Amino acid sequence: MKTYVQWQAENNTQNEFNARSLFDCLYDGLSELTTAIVTKQLPYYMIPERNLMAASGLQAKQQSKWISDITDMMADGPWAILRLPKIR
């Protein structure tokens, strides 16, 4: 997620980041993370040609579980934040 946040900060103006856009950013981040897991392509922020997923050893079963979990979180919308133990 840190890599995604860095990309978001670079590609959007500061005015686009506010409390009301938090969930939009979270949703976009989860969507991007899903794509990275499906394609096994996640460019490192500092060296974009470096793929952070290349050496992950991600197996199909784990990949499927993560995609399912993320999809469920996205379907929850803003309520997804309540999944975080520190928030509850």
Please summarize what this structure is.
This protein has 88 residues and is mostly helical.
Q: What report would you give on this structure?
A:
- The protein has 88 residues and is mainly alpha-helical.
- The chain has helices at residues 2-11, 22-39, 60-76.
- It has one domain (2-83).
- InterPro entries: Mab-21_HhH/H2TH-like.
- It comes from Dreissena polymorpha.
- Pfam families: Mab-21_C (PF20266).
Labels describing this entry:
mainly alpha; 3 helices; Mab-21-like HhH/H2TH-like domain-containing protein; Mab-21_HhH/H2TH-like
Topology diagram in text:
Elements: H1 2-11, H2 22-39, H3 60-76
Order of helices and strands: HHH
The number of domains is 1
The DSSP helix count reads: 3
Uncertain runs are: none
Report how far the terminal alpha carbons are from each other: 21 Å
Main sheet overview: none
Strand portion? under 5%
Which percent range fits the helix content?
40-55%
Count of distinct strands = 0
